[in-house]
Amino acid sequence: MSNSVMSQSKRKENEFYDLERQKIGRVTVRLVQFGCVVHCIDRYVGSFVMCCGDSMVPTLFNNDIVLAENISVAYKKLQKGDIVIARSPADPYQFICKRLVAMEGDSVIDDNSERQYVPKGHVWLEGDNHRNSNDSRHYGPVPAGLLNRRVFFRVWPFSYMGYLKHPAER
């Protein structure tokens, strides 16, 4: 084979690999952009959350998937009766799903029939299933800074899909 035919074939091969590298580069850029959008939505808007445990029965069951939004927490628009996701005060690597029962300045009656006041910057969280819930009745008021999201819609199971109602709306 002559040198010119060989160099022509080598050039076509290099052009092919250059086009492939460009395609891979474009796909990589799109994936990074998509990842950034997903991260921003998760961090600032909301996301899907799987609730584990029985502390919120009968409102939420083990392995229910819900939509939770961050905006109410960020703008301090939470209300008594909201279901929230928070970092556990007992284990900061774990998240808990509980109902917001009282806010700063409110009083609650604990399991010992004693009145407790929720201090400034704190909230009182309880599970709907009082017999099977480790909550503020055990660890006291929770710093509001541990609140993460507000749960508002059940996605799974489909047979129970819908907005979660406040206790007053039931």
Q: What are the main properties of this structure?
A:
alpha+beta; two-stranded antiparallel ribbon; elongated; 3 helices; about 30% strand; Umud Fragment, subunit A; 8-stranded antiparallel β-sheet; 2 domains; about 170 residues
3D architecture notes:
- This protein has 170 residues and is α+β, with helices and mostly antiparallel strands.
- The chain folds into two domains: 1-44; 46-165, Umud Fragment, subunit A, CATH 2.10.109.10.
- The chain has three helices and ten strands.
- Strands 1, 2, 3, 4, 7, 8, 9 and 10 form an eight-stranded antiparallel β-sheet that branches. Strands 5-6 form a two-stranded antiparallel ribbon.
- A hairpin with a 7-residue loop joins strand 3 and strand 4.
- It is elongated.
- Heterodimer of 2 subunits, IMMPL1 and IMMPL2.
- InterPro entries: LexA/Signal_pep-like_sf, Mito_IMP1_subunit, Pept_S26A_signal_pept_1, Peptidase_S26.
- Its main location: mitochondrion.
- One of its GO terms (cellular component) is mitochondrial inner membrane peptidase complex.
The CATH topology assignment of the largest domain is Umud Fragment, subunit A
User: CATH-wise, what's the superfamily of the largest domain?
Assistant: Umud Fragment, subunit A
Main sheet specs: 8 strands, antiparallel
Question: Helical percent range?
Answer: 25-40%
Report strand %: 25-35%
Number of helices: 3
H/E element sequence: HEEHEEEEEHEEE
Low-confidence stretches: none
Extended strand count: 10
Distance between the termini: 85 Å
Overall tally of domains: 2
Radius of gyration (CA) equals: 26 Å
CATH class of the largest domain: Mainly Beta
Tell me the overall shape.
elongated
The CATH architecture designation of the largest domain is: Ribbon
Mean pLDDT: 84
**SS-derived structural category:** alpha+beta
